[in-house]
């Protein structure tokens, strides 16, 4: 893919991928765009347009071959390119993400967690060790880590972010509710949970 | 606000709100659009356009009054309208969300958690009780709950979703990696974490 995919397309493709995974698990061979559209409560033409971006055509009457479409999405979204990431902050959210096995299917290899709490350091979560945050620079260098998943308490977010960037981190997936101040060559993806949900509630008048 | 705000605008407004909260905590009275733009690595004109949607104008040279702008965002995004929600699934992610005190500032009142694990039922998380999932219909009726935050394991997602909908739930904030099949009058917001992050990595060639 030379073309840049829009955020919304990427987001929908990952949802189609989940649906395809379910279908394949159930032994269903074909899926149609109306079936996908109905599950996501979106328009059928939207689904067809998205899949057309992958240069993939379904068969008349039966739809898309689930396995082929799944592989095509994986190639487009580069699921097979392994991206090593560290979780910084072994609180509830950090633990939940460490236990989330699905990340691997998407090419995310969470190789370790870091925390500064003595009672956590040294324990294992889902096969991943919790290391002392002090040792982060050493590991970052060893694994040439570029991605950090930030799940520390709000009040430490900026200081820890500065520390990670000093150790060579270039991409931060920020789960804290803080807007981090970072140099121009560092990219932050703000996982703005509440902002996501407000997109849903504000216009629906929940 | 009669006008519908786009998802991206809503998302950015919540980030501006975080920045304003920080500034106000630090005792800073004014904030300029370039200051916001720099923190978010976005264009200054974008920030000004978003804030113009709120019919708010900054003062020349000094910028926006932080407290006023903050209140205006809260009104626009209806932070003061309390939305009662239940967390379904008291695993790590459910616990992390229950402990996330910031939700209240946004009008989310997480009133209880539900799980089916005997060792969890009856315990308290951040002042919220974990009830037996069997009792959900009773509580849903009592509190007239419309929103459920779904954090159960993947394999139970569809069954639990059916159960919640039967009990009157109309909005599901779905943190599971499943695409749920729901009736037309039920809205699902898929918190597609991996899709969000792939938006970031795919086009950046991480």
Largest interface: A-B, 59 and 59 residues
By DSSP, the count of extended strands of chain A is 9
User: Judging by the overall fold, what is the CATH architecture of the largest domain in chain A?
Assistant: 3-Layer(aba) Sandwich
What is the alpha-carbon Rg of chain A in Å? Answer: 20 Å
Strand order of the largest sheet of chain A: 5-6-4-3-7-8-9
Work out the strand percent of chain A. Answer: 15-25%
- Protein structure class of chain A: alpha/beta
Query: What about the largest sheet of chain A?
Result: 7 strands, mixed
CATH fold group of the largest domain in chain A: Rossmann fold
Domain count of chain A, please report it: 2
Helix content of chain A: 40-55%
Distance between the termini of chain A: 39 Å
Look at the structure and name the CATH superfamily of the largest domain in chain A: NAD(P)-binding Rossmann-like Domain
CATH class of the largest domain in chain A, named Alpha Beta
Number of helical stretches of at least 4 residues of chain A:
9
Overall morphology of chain A: elongated
- The string of secondary-structure elements of chain A, in order, is HEHHEHEHHEEEHEHEEH
For this entry, what is the oligomeric state of its chains? homodimer
Identify low-pLDDT runs of chain A: none
Mean pLDDT of chain A: 90
